[in-house]
Amino acid sequence: MEEKRKHKRLDLDVTVQLERLDRDDITTLKFVHVGIMNLSRGGIGFKAKQKLEVGTYYDTRLTIWTGEVIDAVIEIVRRDTIEEGYTYGAEFIGMTETDALKIDIYQIFNEL
Asked: What is the pTM (predicted TM-score) of this model?
């Protein structure tokens, strides 16, 4: 099967915190801890026990392998039910170029 993604996925054992963004800049969900299944410059795949709605946006604080934190906004684009809760696919819709480069650098080292 041909890979359709623009960016290669990385498998990571790190966590991310999510805080829901609403239209009126009111957050309705405090930080939720999730486990990342994979990460690319374009988005993340993760597991969570909480049910998040497709099409919703979240401020994220992603702690990466170096201990640094990447702040980004994601949109939930996919949700699947699993025994332990849910798996999600989310696209980055707001991230600094510097933070995106951190992901690229890790990918380069991971491939060596």
From this structure: 0.76
